[in-house]
Design goal:
The chain is α/β, with parallel strands linked by helices and 254 residues long. It is built from ten helices and eight strands. The longest helix has 15 residues.
Length: 254
């Protein structure tokens, strides 16, 4: 049975990585494993919220492929071997970090090898969760063209909500098939301001982006990040965690 693909999207600073870490915690506690978490943001920091050290990134492997390959190996064999070595293996989930993009003179063959390798990896997992930049080009590079759940993350601002709507609309030009998509608003004030509530409702009513959840700001999460603790160790009674888990219950039950 193929894995379910979950993709995060949203402009920088909206809390995509926070939501990704909380979703990993949720899936682990629901025993929906194994999970492959892919940090596809060039400013990778999902590992920090999981308290993991990163050795090799896909960006570094791409650079290596521009040099000499060890004798007796083809480039695709070498790429697959290096990707396997770069996977951080944990209990119930693994983490793969994309790192910095190639930049000018993109080594497109490396993306082809990555897509082939992802095809091989996919069968090992129940869920693949991809923490993306706004553009979502990494999904195409990894050959993940059918997305089961797209979670578009916004901050509590009118501009953030508008950007979330635009991101939701760009999946079609990328030829991505998205089965379900949801808007999640992060770090919302409590109580909710009437202006923000109206903007969220407007975005939901005028687009095909139903509301998945509104997550409050959380001092506990800020403290956990500052101290370098794993979000997987957060108490499930924390209001933000409870709110997120309730939203995920609704999203993944539909």
């Amino acid at each position: 049975m193929p894995p379910k693909i979950i993709a995060m999207a949203g402009k920088g600073g909206t809390g995509k990585t926070t939501t990704s870490a909380l979703l990993i915690k949720y899936l682990l506690e629901k025993k929906q494993t194994p999970i492959l978490a892919v940090d596809a943001d060039s400013n990778a920091n999902l590992n920090e919220l999981l308290a993991l050290d990163v050795g090799t990134t896909i960006g570094q492997i791409r650079k290596e492929l521009k040099g000499d390959i060890p004798g007796g190996m083809s480039r695709d064999q070498y790429m697959e071997m290096k990707i396997q070595q770069s996977i951080i293996e944990e209990s119930g989930y693994d983490l793969l970090v994309m790192g910095q993009p190639d930049g000018p003179g993109c080594y497109c063959a490396a993306n082809q090898y990555l897509a082939m390798t992802m095809d091989h990896l996919a069968d090992n997992y129940r869920y693949i969760l991809v923490d993306n930049e706004a553009g979502m080009e990494h999904l195409s590079r990894m050959n993940l063209r059918t997305i089961d759940y797209l979670l578009v993350i916004s901050d509590p601002s009118a501009r953030g909500i508008m950007t979330a709507r635009r991101i939701s609309e760009i999946t079609e030009p990328l030829q991505l098939v998205v089965k379900k998509k949801y808007l999640i608003v992060n770090r919302a004030p409590e109580p909710m301001t009437p202006e923000l509530d109206a903007k969220i409702r407007e975005a939901v009513d005028q687009s095909d982006l139903p509301l998945g959840g509104i997550f409050p700001a959380s001092d506990e999460l800020v403290k956990q990040e500052i101290t370098g603790g794993s979000y997987l160790q957060l108490d499930t009674d924390i209001p933000m965690v409870k709110t997120a888990f309730n939203a995920f219950d609704k999203i993944f039950a539909e």
